[in-house]
Amino acid sequence: MRILVVGGTGTIGQAVVSKLRKEHEVITAGRTSGDVQVDLTATESIESLFKKVGHVDAIVNASGAATFKLVEDMTPEDNLVAVQSKLLGQINLALIGQKYLRNHGSITLTTGVMKDDPIPGGASAALANGGVAAFVKSAAIDFTHGIRINCVSPNVLVESFEQYKESFRGFTPVPVERVATAYVKSVEGKQTGQEYQIY
Ligand SMILES: NC(=O)c1ccc[n+]([C@@H]2O[C@H](COP(=O)([O-])OP(=O)(O)OC[C@H]3O[C@@H](n4cnc5c(N)ncnc54)[C@H](OP(=O)(O)O)[C@@H]3O)[C@@H](O)[C@H]2O)c1
Hints:
This protein is of the alpha/beta class. It has helices spanning 11-20, 43-53, 76-97, 123-139, 161-164, 176-188, and strands at 2-6, 25-30, 36-37, 56-61, 101-110, 148-154, 195-198.
């Protein structure tokens, strides 16, 4: 398969790419890193990415930003970061990318644990995660030609825990290797409309 991994140079992305590269051709994309550049917050940038990359069998996204701030301190502008990146960035990748997917291709997006297990300051990210998960479940029944769509909802990673441990007190972090396996299941398997919760 020919697979595009946006965020392929990040903590999750690198683990996904190293698994997929064993059997597939993988193209990585990031804002400044990767084989090709894209900013998911801009639709023109997504269009230009696919014009460069062409047709693929799978699109994976392992990127998305959010502002982590207590709701009492959060402004509408703070909230827009998650809406433009984690939510609309991923949905626009799917909407634009579907035109470049071969029959029986797949789209795999990323959500996250805080929508199911709240953390302080996580409401904006949770909103985006919830929107993406709902889109995936619903979009799956619209696709024809064998096109599939899933998302992966990782818990906080072992590899990122030191950085985020104050927000994730009492959580049991998961190894990125386990999270990456869920992306492989989405790409290589037959399921659609799923959210793989790796908690
Ligand atoms: N780490 C965790 O514990 C954890 C847990 C649950 C969910 N998640 C979610 O999983 C996703 C990936 O997390 P991570 O820890 O692997 O992130 P990371 O290590 O910070 O890597 C982010 C990746 O995304 C790319 N990227 C960032 N903004 C982008 C944009 N606007 N357009 C295109 N590419 C962009 C980066 O490339 P450039 O640097 O070149 O832009 C990089 O390749 C995030 O949505 C995160 O919220 C992470």
